[in-house]
Structures are given as C-alpha cells and as structure tokens.
C-alpha cells in the first residue's frame, strides 16, 4: 500500500486541496488543477452587442439624444434587455478594452440613405473578423487590411516640441542662437505620397513612397498586399471612397483586378474617415516621425518613415504607441 510522504503545509487550504485530490491509488498531486479564475461577467455576444450599440448613435434607436453618455448607454442596455445590470464604471472599462472612447469626429454628418448603414455594417463586420470576435463564413475574407494614402509629404518645417537652449536676454552670450525654421520657398521639389496598409490580424504596418497617387499606383500597392498570402486565401482591403480606389464607369481596373485575384475592396461611408483604423496609425506616424522636424531632402524624409515603420512593427506593444493609437482610434 502506497504512503504519502511527510509534508508540511503552509496553510489549511493547501492541506485541504491535497486531501481532496487524493486518488484511489494512494497518490496525490501537490498542485491542484487551475480553475481559470473568475468567469467573465458578460458573454462574448453580450460584449459584442454592447460595443455595436456604443458605436451607433442614439437617434438610430429613436432616442432624442445626439450622443451617448455612460448613464444613457447603461440605462438603454438594461431597458433593451442586452444585459440584466451594468455599472457605469464597468461599462467604461468594457468600452476602453474594446478600443472605444468618447471622441469628436471632425467629419461626422447625418446620412439618411441606406448606403451609409450598409457600408458601415460591412466594415464593422470585417473588423470583428480581424479581432477574432466572429469566425469568417465560407467565402468571407480571412485577412483584413486597412489601406490609405498619407500625404502630402512636402519638405517643410513641422510643428512640434523638443528640448532646446533657453532663449531671452539672460541667456549665456557664448551659446549659439536657437535653431530657426528654414524657408520653404527655395525647395521646389514637388511632393510625395505614402501608400500604407495596416494588417489588423498581425498588427503590422507597411508602406511605399510614391511620387504620385493614382489608380495605377493604387493597384500596384494592392498587388503588393496580395503577394503576402497564397492565392487561395481571400483578403479584404478597407479603403475610403477616394476616386482612384473606386470602380467607376470610366475605369473598371480595380473591380476587375479584385474579382480575378480573390480580393474584396470594402469602402468606408462618405465623410467617415473616423471609421478607418489606419487613421490612428497615421496619427502615431505623425507624432513619432514628423513632429518637430525639418527634413532637408527627400532621402532623409523617406529614411525616417521607413525606419519608423521598422521600429513600429518591432515594438507594436510599446506603451506610448498603444496609448496614442487607442486615444486616436474611434473605430
């Protein structure tokens, strides 16, 4: 008959766990099975419905309010039976974890047409697929990109704060004068445009700098995104309704290429750039790589952008970067 070795327990609870796990053979494990912690208060469908309602507008639900507050949103969720009860603080934490926050979109307008609701619902569904909240149905995209152009990248001084010598009449006379902004009238070198895409699943940013932005450059960058995955993997590219992105009566290049290469082009609604997640990545690019700079040449500017993208992809979990993106992202 097996015997248990003499063991000294540090607490009665530890001894009770060992006795409870003692099996028929006389052996026991000193490490009880992990129970998984406290279960979530709300299920995944409930959390998804809360986020969808928070992103909607009260007038869409027949309420005489222009915006949500925590009190109004919590009362509405309980009244509609989405949840039995939810505190204001719990709602705030749930919204912040889902990258939702109270923001002031600069180009949000009222839209009465059904086209706005359809496009918005499709983009949000693609975001849910990318966030692993929804499993893609057969024929739906498995990879989601957010794509847009950043520019114009002209050579000019950029506003921003930095450490510098103190000015004024009491400064040390031996010090050199503070650096001043250079004139831009002597730099007639045109502009550049950054074609960038953000992989929502991998949280990786990529981009190419081009001299012009037109339908040919757009398709060239789309082919570059398509090369990341096998032809059998359906991908979706979310972009705004800028004319080179669209399939018009005059030119069907975009639609023809997308249909032939297993690609879906999803468009955000008109005047709804706040729904485009790459805008938050552009805000971080502007903050980290452009604020307070005055690049002397295109080579220096392009090198700064490329080195930032490399740093950003290697440090996607950086606290400053995540805080800035979370604060700017409204989608």
Largest sheet: 5 strands, mixed
Let me know the average pLDDT: 80
Helix-and-strand structural type? alpha/beta
**Could you say what the CATH topology of the largest domain is called?**
Nucleotidyltransferase, domain 5
Tell me about this structure.
This protein is α/β, with parallel strands linked by helices and 331 residues long. It folds into three domains: 1-39, no CATH class; 44-102, no CATH class; 121-156 and 190-328, Ribonuclease H-like superfamily/Ribonuclease H (Nucleotidyltransferase, domain 5), CATH 3.30.420.10. It is 35% helix and 10% strand. The protein has ten helices and five strands; from the N terminus they run H-H-H-H-H-E-E-E-H-E-H-E-H-H-H. Helix 7 (253-260) links the parallel strand 4 and strand 5 (263-267). Mean pLDDT is 80; it is low at 22-28 and 106-113.
């Amino acid at each position: 008959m097996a015997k248990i070795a003499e063991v000294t327990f540090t607490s009665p609870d530890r001894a009770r766990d060992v006795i409870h796990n003692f099996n028929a053979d006389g052996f026991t494990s000193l490490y009880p099975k992990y129970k998984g912690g406290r279960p979530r208060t709300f299920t995944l469908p409930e959390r998804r419905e809360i986020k969808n309602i928070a992103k909607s507008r009260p007038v869409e639900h027949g309420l005489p309010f222009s915006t949500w507050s925590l009190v109004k949103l919590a009362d509405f969720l309980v009244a509609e039976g989405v949840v039995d009860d939810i505190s204001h603080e719990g709602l705030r934490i749930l919204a912040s974890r889902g990258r939702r926050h109270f923001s002031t979109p600069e180009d949000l307008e009222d839209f009465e047409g059904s086209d706005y609701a359809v496009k918005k619902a499709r983009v949000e569904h693609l975001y849910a697929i990318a966030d692993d909240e929804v499993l893609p149905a057969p024929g739906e995209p498995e990879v989601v990109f957010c794509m847009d152009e950043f520019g114009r990248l002209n050579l000019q001084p950029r506003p921003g704060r930095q450490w510098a010598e103190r000015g004024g009449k009491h400064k040390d006379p031996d010090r050199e004068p503070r650096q001043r902004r250079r004139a831009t009238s002597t730099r007639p070198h045109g502009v550049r445009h950054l074609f960038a895409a953000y992989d929502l699943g991998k949280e990786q940013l990529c981009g190419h700098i081009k001299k012009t932005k037109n339908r040919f450059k757009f398709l060239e960058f789309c082919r570059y995104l398509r090369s990341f995955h096998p032809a059998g993997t359906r991908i979706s590219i979310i972009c705004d309704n800028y004319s080179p992105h669209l399939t018009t009566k005059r030119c069907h290049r975009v639609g023809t290429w997308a249909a032939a290469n297993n690609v879906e082009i999803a468009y955000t609604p008109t005047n709804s750039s706040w729904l485009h997640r790459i805008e938050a990545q552009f805000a971080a690019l502007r903050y980290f790589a452009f604020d307070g700079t005055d690049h002397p040449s295109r080579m220096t500017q392009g090198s700064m952008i490329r080195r930032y993208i490399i740093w950003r992809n290697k440090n996607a979990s950086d606290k400053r970067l995540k805080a800035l993106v979370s604060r700017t992202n409204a989608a």
